[in-house]
Please model this.
Amino acid sequence: MIRRPRGTRDFDPEEMRKRRHVESIMRDIVERWGYEEVLTPTFEHIELFTIKSGEEIRNEMYGFIDKGGRELALRPELTAPVIRMYVESMEKKPKPLRLYYFGNCFRYERPQKGRFREFWQFGVELIGGSEVYANAEAIALAHTILSTVGLECPVRLSHLDVMNKLLSQLSEEQQRKVLRQIDKKETNIDVEEPLLSSIRSLLSPMEPHEAIEVASDIAPCEGLKTLSELVELLECYGVPYQIDFSIVRGLEYYTGIVFEMYAEGLGAENQVCGGGSYSLSELFGGESIESCGFGIGFDRVMEICKLEPPTRTKLVVVNAGAYDYAVMVSKLLREQGGNFSVELDVMERKLREQLERANTIGAKYAIVVGERERKEKLVSLRDMETGEQTKLSIDELVKFVRNL
RNA sequence: GCCGGGAUAGGGUAGUGGUUAUCCUUUGGCCCUGUGGAGGCCAAGAGCCGAGUUCGAAUCUCGGUCCCGGCCCCA
Model:
């Protein structure tokens, strides 16, 4: 038997109903905020992803060479492709540009809970806003999306200036190492006093305003001003947040404000959203422009989201020996456009078996049509729960299903 | 790449170094030619792959694959 590749998944109808439901909620929200959808190719030139992240990341990508000798890769994320698209064909659009995407991404990594080799990301890019206001919008939007689908995750905020300033005395290599240790929440950080104490006090849990105050003493920088402005805007939106200077994302393309959101119940992979300010367009040959955005790990949201998708009422037209009449009735019902489905036998089943079928699929009503009904220009509507059966005219039937 | 736990019909399971691998569910057929849910009968469908040990392996051993969880990583 041929099975699906490692780290990939099949989604059965029940899962797809849930996924599409959550997806449509997310789309609905961002579109209400004025974001418009874009779609980029599933694969890109591998350079698009290595240009900022270094060659090492090739190991985590699905890369290949096509027949023309081009080095390509399945996209491991969507921010770079969207910005590439912006540079390639949208640079002269009126600013700000509000774009959103929903797409599958691929990473060659060890699968575990909430982590797959093919996974879906839902995200937005807000191109050309001023840093503080644009990030405030992005954060509020991300928070709205997650709480609407039932996830209460407070936002954790930081500004990369702070740690950069604090560690500026160290060599680049040391900075990398220390940032990594901070990111991993390690208790042993490889630096001398008094820097160590400074880092420790910056990382200790504090109220937002206190955190900013403490940081101003230890590592005064522009970023802190930005951060305190952002905090005020978030108050306007009523978004709950914490300041957490351990958020580094330093190995990515982020440049200023950064934020993350975490959820319970996901094991080691509990980050459901991450984002911030970045600067990519000039790397792809465009003009530099302030941008920010976030990505939501759609699969992780689905893992803990309890939303029940709406169900469609099932109707079964039972053909009791009058196929043409049954088709006519089915067609008519389907044209009504209500929230129901209409199924008609394709297995040449007897009346009894068609009713059994209606029963096993959980149909709400069976509509029995045969010669008798045709002669009377009626149908027999059978309630599959109570067993009650009544005769209706076609007009009455139409009126009836419209209310489903 | 590393560590631990797994893998028996479509789904869920039992058991054993030894005839034809258990049960539930599911699916198809019939009892039942214009009325479902119950019941009865019949049928279909399985030990992840490969090698080794053995008279004999689904069972024991090793390797691989895949799944689950953790580490590394997470642009």
Notes: Residues 13-304 of chain A form a domain with the BirA Bifunctional Protein; domain 2 fold (CATH 3.30.930.10). Chain A is about 40% helix and 25% strand. The mean pLDDT of chain A is 91. Chain A has two domains: 13-304, 313-402.
